[in-house]
Design brief:
There is one protein chain. Helices cover 38% and strands 17% of the residues. By secondary structure, the chain is α/β, with parallel strands linked by helices. It has one domain: NAD(P)-binding Rossmann-like Domain (Rossmann fold, 3-Layer(aba) Sandwich), CATH 3.40.50.720. Strands 3-2-1-4-5-6-7 form a seven-stranded parallel β-sheet, with helices on both faces. The longest helix is centred in the middle third of the chain and has 24 residues. The radius of gyration is 18 Å and the shape is globular. The chain starts with 8 loop residues before the first strand and ends in a 10-residue tail after the last strand.
């Protein structure tokens, strides 16, 4: 399906993961054209191979393609990396690589999009971060540090980009009901999280994509510098 210049367009970084696919489906369902940036080649005219960490400038082919399809009304970053570590096994190289993927990737790509005038005025920007930018769990040193850095990124960008009317927010998922969660957490850990609130369940991918849509779509007319937590109250409300 070829893009329609009449449809609003979302540029989605990290659209191949479970959260990214859910966001993609939500926007398509709402009538948007969704274009996905990936570091690997995929035979689809909606996928763009681009790695903002290694490529500090767009290739002429990608720039020409972006100019052809028109400006983006929304940009979402749902890419990122995650691994377990602590101060006892800290590896500065691995830590730096995670910072590049979780933080610099966003700044590099945003800078290029703005420099080439590829986003509409105003554009709604949204970063998918994590509740672990605000609270701590064991053996998540590098992940927590890089996600915490996103708090400063969102606040600073929401301030600076206001001069052009742009809105910049973040959505912070908690533990989501996915196959990846089942691989990383034991049944006992999942039950513990479910029982922490009276919902007795985990948040879902749809809960996250609904929150992203509310920040990234035209429904958002005045929210910026905001952090929407999607965890059914887990990080703030406890059963006692």
């Amino acid at each position: 399906m070829k893009p329609s210049n009449l449809k609003p367009k979302l540029l989605l970084f990290g659209g191949t993961g479970s959260i990214g696919r859910s966001i993609q489906n939500k926007f398509i369902e709402k009538g948007w054209d969704v274009f996905i940036v990936s570091r690997s080649s995929i035979e689809d005219d909606k996928y763009i191979k681009w790695n903002p960490i290694k490529e500090d400038e767009l290739s002429s082919d990608i720039l020409k393609y972006f100019k052809k399809i028109g400006k983006f009304s929304a940009v979402c970053w749902s890419q990122g990396s995650n691994f377990n570590d602590s101060v006892y096994d800290y590896n500065p190289i691995a830590h730096q690589e995670m910072y590049e993927t979780n933080v610099m990737y966003i700044l590099n790509s945003l800078s290029i999009l703005i420099r080439h005038n590829l986003v509409a005025k105003p554009t709604r920007f949204c970063v998918v971060s994590s509740i672990w930018q605000n609270i701590s769990r064991q053996d998540k040193l590098s992940y927590a540090v890089t996600k915490s850095a996103l708090k400063g990124l969102v606040l600073s960008l929401s301030n600076d980009l206001g001069r052009d009317g742009h809105l910049f927010n973040a959505v912070l998922p908690g533990v989501i009901e996915t196959s990846m969660t089942s691989l990383n957490l034991s049944d006992e850990q999942k039950m513990q999280i479910k029982g922490a609130t009276q919902f007795n369940r985990l948040a879902t991918l749809e809960d996250v994509s609904n929150a992203v849509y509310s920040m990234n779509s035209f429904l958002n007319t005045g929210i910026t510098g905001n952090f929407t937590i999607v965890d059914l109250g887990f990080s703030r409300v406890k059963n006692i």
